[in-house]
Amino acid sequence: MSKKQGKPEYVTAISNRKARFEYEILDTIEAGIELLGSEVKSVRLGKASLSESYAMIHHGQVWLENMQITPYEHNTLDTLEPKRSRRLLLHKAEIMRLQSKISEKGLTLIPLKAYFNKRGVLKIELGLARGKKLYDKRETIKNRDAKRQLQQLRKQY
Predict the structure, then answer these.
(1) pLDDT at 32
(2) Which Pfam families match?
(3) What is the count of structural domains for the chain?
(4) For residue range 15-67, what is the model confidence (pLDDT) as tens digits?
(5) Phi-psi group of 6: left, alpha or beta (phi > 0 → left; psi -120 to 50 → alpha; rest → beta)
(6) Contact indicator for 35, 86 with CB cutoff of 8 Å
(7) Is residue 3 part of a domain?
(8) Between 42 and 75, where is the model more confident?
(9) What is the pLDDT of residue 6?
(10) What is the CATH number of the domain that holds 118?
(11) What global pTM score does this model have?
């Protein structure tokens, strides 16, 4: 069967693949994000990136920094800056809990995944993370390679 030409392909999730390699994820939390209509359309088309982005708490609000959203090509209004700060929507108690945990040395908020829930609302999965040391990263690579070799051996036999 042939695919319809006029309908665009929608992406269900955008992930930050480097985050789990470079950080040890201690806890995860789901947050909403405040976007404009043209930005939502771009994210639905998969024109967004979470690499090198992070979240910070400023004046009791959580902000997502450096999330790249390419401007929507059919937007007739003025274009927005692709890497502007975007507000994340959390309950005040959750923000206070995150603030107390972030005040510990070495912890940060990293976006792990952006996805649309069942109602079609864009959500960001944040991870409370601690940076890995170089030897931890090497160990991760070693474990990944060992798993890959086991999978290849299983396929052969």
Answers:
(1) 93
(2) SmpB (PF01668)
(3) 1
(4) 888 888 888 889 999 999 988 878 888 888 888 888 889 999 999 899 999 98
(5) alpha
(6) yes
(7) no
(8) 42
(9) 58
(10) 2.40.280.10
(11) 0.75
- The answer to whether 122 touches 28, Cβ cutoff 8 Å, is no
Q: For residues 124 and 111, what is the distance between their CA atoms, to the nearest angstrom? A: 7
Task: Provide the residue type at 79 as one letter.
Answer: T
- Dump pLDDT digits (tens) for 83-96: 888 999 999 999 99
72 close to 51: Cβ distance less than 8 angstroms: no
Closest listed residue to residue 26, CA positions, set 123, 117, 126, 135: 126
Q: How far apart are CA 111 and CA 48, in angstroms?
A: 13
CA–CA dist 55, 99 (Å, integer): 11
Give the residue ranges of DSSP H helices in 7-157: 17-22, 37-44, 92-102, 134-156
